[in-house]
Amino acid sequence: MSKLILMSVVLALIALPLRAASDPNPVRGIRRAVYAVLVFNLTYAFAIRFVLPRLGL
Amino acid sequence: MRQFLRVALLRHRWTAFLAGALTLLVAQVAATAFPETWRVQADVYVAEPAIVHRLANPFASVPSTKDVLQPLIELLYADEHLTKLVKNTALVDRWKEGRAWPLLLKDSLQERFRAPLSDRDQLAALVAMLEKRLEVEVDGHHVRIAVKWGSPQLAVDLTHAAVRTLVEQRETSEGRALDAAAKGLDEQLAGVRGEMKSRLERLDAELTRARYDRRWAAIDADRDQLFRDQQRAADLIVRAEEKHLGAEIIRRVTPLRALVVKPPVQPKEPLGGGPLARLVCLLLAVLTSALGGAVAVALFGGEICAGFQVRDGLGIPVLGSARIGWIGYRQSLKWQALVAVGLLATVTGVTVGLAKGNPALAVLPWFVAAGLYAVWVLPLKYPLMGLMLLAVTLDDPQDRPYFNLWQSPLYPVGKLFFKNVAWFTGFELSLLFLSALSLLRWFRPSLRPQDVDPFVGAPPKPLRYAVGLSAVSVGVLVVSGVLGGGNFRDALWQFRVLLMMPIAATLAMHAFDFPKDFKPLLWILLIGTVLKSLLGTYFIYRIALPMGELPAHTTGHNDTMIFVTATVAAVVLLWEYPKALSVRAAAILLPFAANAMRLNDRRIAYVDIAVVLIFVYLISPWHQVKRFATRAFVFSLPALLLYMAAGWNSSSGVFKPVAKIRSIVAPAESSEENSSNVERDIENYNLLKNWEQHPLFGRGFGHAFSEFVPSNDFAQSNYGRVGHNSVLWLLWIGGIVGLTGVWLYLGIAAFFCARALARSHRPLNRAALLVSLGILLTYLLQAFGDMGTQSIQMAFFVSVAVATIGRLATQVGAWSYAEAVTEDREITDPETLPLHHLPSTLR
Questions:
Q1: With bands split at pLDDT 50, 70 and 90, how would you rate the model's confidence at B804?
Q2: Is residue B835 within 8 angstroms of chain A, CB to CB?
Q3: What radius of gyration do chain B's Cα atoms show?
Q4: Which residues of B624-637 are buried (b: 16+ CB within 10 A; e: fewer)?
Q5: What's the start-to-end Cα distance of chain A, in Å?
Q6: B381-393 and B426-443 helices cross at what angle (nearest 10)?
Q7: Does residue B840 carry a pLDDT above 50?
Q8: For residue B713, what is the DSSP state?
Q9: Candidates B736, B748, B838; nearest CB to A17
Q10: If you measure CA to CA, which chain B residue comes closest to A3?
Q11: Which one of B24, B104, B446, B814 has the lowest number of neighbouring Cβ atoms within 10 Å?
Q12: B460-508 pLDDT, tens per residue?
């Protein structure tokens, strides 16, 4: 589980923009992609700071 | 071309003659100015027999050969030793022996007009020269010592002296340490015995006094101490004898520990071979200068010598040609061309004088000039493709190719390209040179050759900005790191590949023209895969196994990217275009790629392929092959599960794939994989604890992370300067902000990849986009798994992938419909946005 959390940033960096690409409006799509990556990265930072130690890493 | 060469030589025969003559003249002068160099080599076999150590020093660990040799090499290069060599061989008195005449002339002028060179200055100069000309090479147990000098006898004397130092050091160093230890113990023993003697005297006196006073003697404390001293003395005797014995053993077995296999002998010929080799070299240089001079003057003089120039220059066909008897000049020669020819002929002459019989060096100046000219007039994509070919074929010495047991024929060129030259490697310097060239063409369009790299179809702006953001982020992290107390040299080593990625991506976006350039790129991938697979097979079966070695890997870590990309390319071609052409391509690529991955032996390669194929599956619409693959998977699932269950605990060859999967997802407790995982977990923990100190903006480049929990392979991470998990390492360096800034362009590239895929109908374009997406994923997984950010080869692959996505996105109107130059107009219409191409999961 802790490995998956650590690895998630790599997969999310590709998966979130792929999903955002389906927006018919390219400008809105790219905004969605960038915001999604930013929000995910902040969540990731929170997770590895506070959640991961509880899982044993 | 032959016609061009013939006419150029005929028209400019005088220029050719003068260029050849100039080379000949300069070569003769240079040959006398740079005297012969004689190279003398000796070979010493150094062994560290464990049995000797067990006998000589039973409680000390047996040092490895490397531990033993490293201090010896340092000693040979030490200033004191070099000074001793110079003095012992009386080099100062033989100052003029083998010295070149220009240097002798300089000495006499200095003596005449200034003060003569003092002995001290001569000694310092000779020590500095010897440091440069002394070569010490360690190859397994062999230490090869070589000296290059202007006089053969001096070269022999110096080599002999260096060998003697090495052997003496082997004789005396450890024996001396043991002797010193034994002497120390002897002294301690003497002290204890002295104390015992005085104590006995005191006891005697006390006993006599007690008898005289008719009382009990107070001797308990001294008696107990005497017993203790006696035990201590016995112990010291044993230990001292052990040390004496050890020293004696070391002295007796010295011939076994340092054996001169090949003593220094005077060579028959100087460096570069005999007179015949020199003559051939000279002739080659003269002919090259003559031919090069004529061609250069014809080319830069703007003359038309052959039909292809008319076709290329004017774009009209040549229907016929007539030979006329006049070979006069149609245009005046450009003086710049003549100056360039004269300069090159002179440089060639000097090189011949220095090369001393090396034919490659003799023609090098003309080839370098021709190469630079070609780079200038050809589109940028050709040098980039050349670099890519080098990246996929050459051996990177830092990547431990062939487990450092064998050097392939590509190793020397690889050394030139992947080892540090001037802060950067040759490969990185080539990229920087091409960047400078592009900038020059960009800012001075008048200098740009006609029709070379017209920048049309630029990738979407957000992608270009994101690539720029990556470069800026790296720059900011370098500045913040160094200002925060980091070491710039460490920082350079850490950031240079990350910085090269946006640079190479910008170049590739500018240079490549898709889909035209897919085929050559696919060929390059094929060449790399086949070559590495064949070399790896040769190494294992003809080199390693006959040596009794079974190395953990053959090709290096960086090569994994080549094999994964080749596998993904073959599968994706079948996925998108299930026709005979794709089957043929897969039939060639897959066996070689599979063999190469088997020899590469990295679990992460299989993880990369699996993850990439899952993404390809998810992102693809429900076409025929996807339906077929899904059905096949569902139907075979029970059999697969049974196979997995049966082979989970089996070591049989039939279940090898299951064992591989198990080693990835759940390695056995005692396995090597598990031990490696534990070490990685410790390093990850240390990286995260370090990151917690600067979570947002990171530490910057130029620092080393600290060990909160000690790790067994801290040395492998260069003592905290680089992490195996490059994602966490970059997180520690840049914080969450820096990580996002440096890698956001990979996400933006994925975004445009999906949009371009939705608008692209050509199978080759779609396959190229999917392979590019695969490269991005592979890079990130390699970064997570094992130092992916430190490989310039991987960075180059990513750059080409980003360029592919960017250029195709523009072509199919993935960003701006107005810019689309497309394969299919109707799908670029915003009203008919083909969302049906995306699977429902992504809509």
A1: very high
A2: yes
A3: 36
A4: eeeeebeeeeeeee
A5: 10
A6: 170
A7: no
A8: T
A9: B748
A10: B681
A11: B446
A12: 999 999 999 999 999 999 999 999 888 888 898 889 889 999 999 999 9
